[in-house]
Design a protein that fits this description.
alpha/beta, Alpha-Beta Plaits, 4 domains, five-stranded parallel sheet, five-stranded antiparallel sheet
Length: 547
């Protein structure tokens, strides 16, 4: 008999008001532990704490927060079996979705010799291989190649680029996607020996899954259905027609002009992709371009886009969209913007419609995301969620870590959690944006006394010899002790440097340690070293490769 699953005899969930950061969660956890509760898990973002009361009355748990800035709004008790006997189920793990989170979970489960079913209603492989990372970066690389051909930054070198055969470019992208889907997904399913089922899955009482009339019962379920492009509610948008980041990469002819609504990483990548291919691009940004980045980084990107002829209009909220002959017209704040095509890049929404999650007691958030605790468990103890559908950072490497973590927590009772403190992120434009850790504003909001330095790439020899000094490195460090808590880079090649920055944060490296370490000369990575040096020395007064 295989035994898996829950390990509490009783849990109490406290819905708590007033938490705004990780430090708040620590205060709440300490107060509840002091009252005698055990196994305390606090999620400040979801505004709740889950505890084993260990005999402590609910009233005492409420009163434990009386001397704090937080208050208990609601208490939910849940009795949970000490173990789940999976012998009575069809599968140990049934997964809805087939992307990065789903495959990571399936592989981890099969390594434990568990019975796994994966249900996919569309194309196997999820966002990354089909409509996200792989196709977009393949097209971005091609567009960047064309841009470099007409750049003309090196004396004595003459190159040119002709018109783009969009049909051939997209066909080559599709071939690459098909090859990777086959080798990295379909063949792996056969190799690891888990079942792939094509169909529409919906949760029904049990909990169980109904897959096109077939009832599937499993000891545990994983929702890994991903996310899809968000379509804002703008009058006339549906009648006028629009592209998304998915459909834009399927065009077989290059539009003469393009309006892009959005200012985040998808909007920036798509805008520059088409601009580098020869399209006239205008961006309409509700707030600011690259709003989530450091202001110094956003300023560099804004200047770079304008230098390439990408028109960026900030603080613009579209009022209406309409068609005028072959053009699409966006009306905003008394202005009229027109182009041959309109691209919506206003974020991605968790894909939960039609899954019947509420029917089995799984709570959803305001944007339709599956709400989970720190261990990725939903409000139903046998249902877990991972990846983009949770509303957590939407990166495939986050989804993959989620998938493996769910299997450890569900079947090994590991109690593992994801730590995002050193999470790296990259926007694949040129100059590339790469960051890890806290921004200066984040640090100050958390009450951390910090000190920052900004190093322009004009001080980095790699950028100088490449004739491409547009960009900078910004370090955020604790004022006392100098521990590095944030690194922000914008420049050609920044994505290849951010792993070192992430490791510096993860290992609690100080500015002094970074400044006294090795710095390989004539790499962009030397910018990290020089930025650390700038806390105590003027980098303009350093000799090349001098310590």
């Amino acid at each position: 008999m295989r035994v898996t699953g829950g390990w509490w005899l009783m849990s109490v969930e406290l819905q708590i008001a007033g938490m705004t950061c990780a430090a708040c969660a620590q205060h709440v956890e300490q107060a509840l532990r002091h009252a005698g509760a055990r196994d305390v898990r606090v999620d400040w973002q979801l505004g709740r704490a889950t505890v084993d009361p260990y005999g402590v009355p609910n009233g005492e748990l409420v009163r434990a927060l009386d001397d704090t800035n937080y208050r208990v709004q609601r208490i939910v008790e849940a009795a949970r079996d000490d173990a789940i006997d999976s012998a009575g189920y069809d599968y140990d793990l049934a997964i809805v979705g087939s992307g990065g989170a789903a495959f990571a979970a399936a592989i981890a489960a099969r390594r434990r010799d568990l019975r796994v079913l994966m249900v996919e209603r569309g194309v196997v492989g999820g966002t990354c291989v089909n409509v996200g990372c792989i196709p977009s970066k393949a097209l971005l690389a091609a567009a960047e190649s064309r841009r470099r051909a007409i750049d003309g930054r090196f004396a004595g070198i003459s190159t040119d680029a002709g018109p783009v055969d969009m049909g051939a470019l997209v066909a080559a992208k599709d071939d690459l996607v098909g090859e990777l889907r086959q080798s990295k997904y379909l063949e792996l399913a056969d190799e690891y020996g888990f079942e792939l089922l094509d169909g529409n899955a919906r949760f029904v009482a049990g909990p169980a899954l109904d897959v096109d009339g077939r009832r599937v019962e499993a000891a545990h379920y994983l929702v890994a259905s991903g996310a899809e492009p968000h379509v804002p509610d703008i009058p006339g948008i549906h009648a006028s027609g629009y592209l998304t980041s998915t459909t834009a990469m399927e065009l077989t002819s290059l539009p003469e002009s393009l309006l892009v609504i959005g200012g985040g990483y998808v909007a920036m990548e798509q805008a520059q992709l088409f601009a580098h291919l020869g399209t006239r691009v205008t961006m309409l940004v509700r707030s600011q371009l690259a709003r989530g980045e450091e202001p110094e980084v956003a300023a560099v990107v804004r200047d770079a886009f304008e230098a390439e002829g990408i028109a960026v209009h900030e603080d613009i909220t579209p009022d209406e969209v309409r068609r005028d002959g072959d053009d699409v017209v966006v009306l905003a704040a008394g202005q009229e913007f027109r182009a041959r095509q309109l691209l919506l890049a206003t974020g991605r929404s968790p894909r939960t419609d039609g899954l019947g999650l509420r029917e089995v007691g799984v709570e959803l958030g305001a944007r339709g995301e599956v709400t989970v605790d720190a261990e990725l468990r939903t409000s139903n103890p046998r249902v877990w969620a991972a990846g983009d559908v949770t509303g957590h950072p939407q990166f495939v490497y986050v989804a993959a870590k989620h998938g493996g973590l769910v299997v450890e927590n569900a079947f090994d009772r590991a109690g593992r959690r994801i730590d995002y403190a050193a999470l790296p992120r990259i926007t694949f434009i040129n100059p590339t944006i790469a960051a890890a850790g806290l921004s200066e504003a984040d640090a100050r909001q958390l009450g951390i006394e910090c000190e920052c330095r900004v190093l322009e790439l004009e001080h980095v020899p790699r950028a100088i010899v490449s004739r491409n000094t547009r960009g900078l490195v910004k370090l955020v460090a604790e004022r006392e002790g100098g521990r590095i808590i944030g690194v922000h880079i914008v420049g050609d090649g920044a994505g290849d440097v951010i792993l070192a920055a992430s490791l510096a944060i993860q290992t609690a490296m100080t500015v002094e340690q970074l400044a006294s370490g090795w710095n390989p000369y004539l790499t962009l990575g030397e910018g990290l070293y020089l930025a650390a040096q700038s806390f105590h020395r003027d980098p303009s007064k350093l000799s090349c490769c001098a310590a």
